[in-house]
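fyi for ur records
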Amino acid sequence: MLFNSLTFGIFLTLTYVLYWSFFRKDVGLRNIFLLVASYFFYGWWNWRLIPLIAGVSAVDFFAGKFIARQRDSSGKGKGILVAALVINLGVLCFFKYFNFFAESFSEAFSFLAGRESGFNPLNIVLPVGISFYTFQGLSYVLDIYSGKTEPTRDVVSFFAFIAFFPQLIAGPIERSRDLLPQFSQKKEFDYESTRKGLLMIAWGLFKKMVIADRLAVFVDSVFADPASHPGISSVVAVLFFTFQLYLDFSAYSQIAIGTARLLGFTLHDNFRRPYLSATFKEFWKRWHITLTSWFMDYLYIPLGGNRRGKARTIFNVMIVFAVSGLWHGASWNFVIWGCVNGLFLVFFDKIVKLRPEAAVPRLLSWSLVFVVWALSLVFFRSATFSDAVTMFSNLGFSGAESLTSCGMGIPEIRLCFFLIVALMVYEVLTKNSQERLERWFFSSSAVLRWVVYILLALSILYLGVYGSNDNSFIYFQF
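which gave:
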């Protein structure tokens, strides 16, 4: 059930009406309803996987209780924590990484032994959202172990917290101390939250369906056969994918936040204008914020962070980025992508200590960050390492006549560039005034607001890209 589908629109409308009509007064019934709705949403892809998310939720719920019990009786609960980590990460590794590691080992064996290993990959279905809900559950267990939070006694609210459908498939990855208490709060219908939530959903759909999916037409054509698109086509494809990825994922996060707001819940922002960043450190504070902070709190700091000297700090950074790359996908390309970004962060933040303040140095630094990020995404998007090498070797400014062989005509390509420029201008103009702009908009005349609403709706209906490519969200595969 995709956010950008009619099915989800019907599902959300029914859920919203039932939620506020029959379940808002009784917290217990409301949470049962949210849990059922979330499992229905998750089971729409494959109902056979519902026991998996329920099982992971049960492990984390009881692990949290037992860890707290041992902690209160002067124990540490370390054994239970290890068991919870093994189960959660074991489930994640089996479904997402078993074939990857087995195939990598098989290829290494074949190379060393000089003969084929005969390995046949298992037919394993990757559960959607597994990387997100396992990390969300793990943060709950780890926070209890470290004493940052207390376990809940409400099993229904905990299961609903893990499976909360707005952010179940691709985040934001919420901490239990922020989201879980919201399931115990009474909710009152708020018109302001509803209209703000709907506007966020509409803006997210616009970014996804009008811009990101349109860019995907060109990107998919080039990356499907990189050898056939030398020169300017490859450059444009890399640029388009840089914005497609951002718009696709930020759109999902925005729709998730808006959907949660319709139900009276608050989720964290996942993006804060990352493409305006002038340093690599700044970029990673603005990009996929909830995942970055998760790795910071539960991997980087436990490894020692920056407290054990420069060499250990560099090592810790590289470990985090390598693991982050692997988290994104079972491919060495993702590991390389993570390591490349880690190397540039280390070099420019820890060694060169890039700190641009004046306008010209900041502009140059911004250009460097953007170009390096865009080039690193060649590994992120390419199906194989050899495809990535081909893409890099093809980059150039010749062959302009081949642009029209990538699924678009020149007017369509010009429209894409116009939309990208318009987006960046909007982000620059609203960098320090987003909240003021929102307050002004919602306090403006009804005529102006409805003109905006209608234009957004018409843009999605008339300019949205439908069915010409895989319109699912990119991060669903993670």
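The radius of gyration is 23 Å. thats all i got for now
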